[in-house]
Amino acid sequence: MDLAIIIASISALAIGLLTGYFLFRYVVKQRYNQAIIEAEKEAENIKNKKLLEVKEKFLNKKAELEKEVNQRNSKFQQMENKLKQRELSLNQRHDELQKDKQRIESLQQSLDAKIANVERKQNELEELQSQERVKLEAISGLSADQARERLVESLKDEARTQAQQYINEIVDDAKMTANKEAKRIVVQSIQRVATETAIENSVSVFHLDSDEIKGRVIGREGRNIRALEAATGTELVVDDTPEAIVISAFDPVRREVCRLALHQLVADGRIHPARIEEVVAKVKKQIEDEIIETGKRTAIDMGIHGLHPELIRIIGKMKYRSSYGQNLLQHARETANLCAVMAAELGLNPKKARRAGLLHDIGKVPDEDPETPHALYGAKLAEQCKEKPDICNAIGAHHDEMEMTTLLAPIVQVCDAISGARPGARREIVEAYIKRLHDLEELAMSYPGVTKTYAIQAGRELRVIVGADKISDADTEILSADIAKKIQDEMTYPGQVKITVIRETRAISFAK
User: Which three-class secondary structure state does DSSP give residue 510?
Assistant: First the structure.
């Protein structure tokens, strides 16, 4: 009985094990199939998600390309319109020249007929004179030669007196005519060249979409705005003015760099000191490229070819410079147009005159601060860039600092004075203000260890950035006091000037 129970138990256990094994295998197989199905669904979802991402990137890239193509098409359309206008102008000039040619031919024919008539009458007069001479010789008993000698002797004194009076009348008439003609040429040149006069200031305004962005621009405890001011050398005024930040600096290039950097930072949304320095460096490179493009476009607009690349870069820099408050590039273009018109009126080469007028102030935008006057420095630059001697002389002599050797020099001098003398074209106060700020920065840069200097607050504050490896913290106070004392001794300025010496240490490493 016990054996049967044992056998039955063993049989039941074996059946239970087999049943559990097959049941476990069935459950595992079901879970395996379910896991495969879920994995396939997840893979399909990932695939669809990636496809959507790729499609979105493709559409964004396509939109960017379409925008770039539209911009290029717009530029091409503008160039095409300019070419059509020039072609129309050339056709009109060609028609006028044809009419003038026909008029000249008609006048030439009329003149030839009058000359023939005069010659015929002159022959008739000579025949009558010959007959009268024969009659007089028969009556007086003197030959023609003897009568001529007596007549000449008797009329010598009277002829001398009349000749002297005639000469004096001609000289007086020539003086009056020359004075009148010179005035006519100058007035006509001014009337034919009409240019807008714009006064540069020292403030730019950056407009914001909303006032919420001001907080991001300022940053935590003002670190962003301090980093931007240190990188660009400007002063940012964030006040209660709605949706606007005021950029203050006497240097137009610095203001433009700060404005473009702000635009990129706000559009990107990432505003922190490291990003600010990166964007400012990129914008400076962009401004340099824009300067070269401006120089090329100006040369093309003025019809001047073959300029040295350095001269093209200097012409582009004129856009961001001013002379007594007058934009230097606008002044150069106006002077060039005046020179071309005046040279054409005087029968000289207008292309050379326009070239000399455009380049006459290149000495005002040097990369370094020269000791020589800007006219002589400009002539030196032009000579180094292989410009012709008459062009170099016109540049160097337009302020009487070099002897004039060609007729281009006085034309450039007069046209420069005409452009600068227009009502409201220049302001002496602005030029003196900018020179004072330049002198402030140059004075601080003369100390060893100083890397950058920025005059802000209309010259009431001077920020001096020094190298951490060259000057210690204790020396910064001494440097600040030395600069303040030197400013007091050597410069004239209103109010007081705050000197801020900034020394910072940076440790940079790269994880590779």
Answer: coil
